[in-house]
Design goal:
The protein is 4% helix and 36% strand. With 134 residues, it is mainly beta. It has one domain: Jelly Rolls, CATH 2.60.120.1140. It has an eight-stranded mixed sheet. The model has no long low-confidence stretch (mean pLDDT 89).
């Protein structure tokens, strides 16, 4: 997978079709730090895919954690391995300080909470930008 394209819109899909069409790929510190903060709501087709920074990529626990401080709504969060396989997923609730995967992860997908059922452990996800897989 090519990891370029910070802040580019991507489409995330699973074997059962498109999961979300309006997802922002975040690979830089600034874009990851912003994530979904400041938004009042999240549409069903919206989300972010956070690429773990080099030193945290392939780690577990606190090294792959997300926080919900300042968030106004719950999200479905899924931690993915280097191949796009979901290794952990959870409904993340507003104002919780810490969510993390106990399994090694390279990415975290944050999408509408109604999509949690579609991102169970073991599900393989992919994504593309402008017709090219990344």
């Amino acid at each position: 997978m090519n990891h370029s394209g910070d802040r580019q819109k991507i489409i995330v899909y699973a074997d059962d079709g498109v999961l979300a069409r309006d997802v922002i790929f975040c690979s830089s510190s600034d874009s990851r730090r912003g994530g979904l903060l400041g938004r009042k709501a999240l549409g069903r087709e919206e989300g972010v895919l956070l690429k773990m920074p080099g030193g945290r990529s392939g780690k577990a626990g606190f090294m792959t954690s997300i926080h919900m401080l300042g968030m106004r709504f719950p999200i479905a969060a899924a931690w993915l391995d280097e191949e796009g396989v979901v290794v952990h997923s959870v409904l993340a609730k507003p104002w919780r300080p810490y969510y993390a995967s106990s399994r090694r992860a390279w990415y975290v997908l944050e999408v509408h909470p109604n999509l949690l059922e579609r991102i169970p452990v073991g599900k393989v996800l992919g994504w593309e930008r402008a017709g090219q897989a990344i």
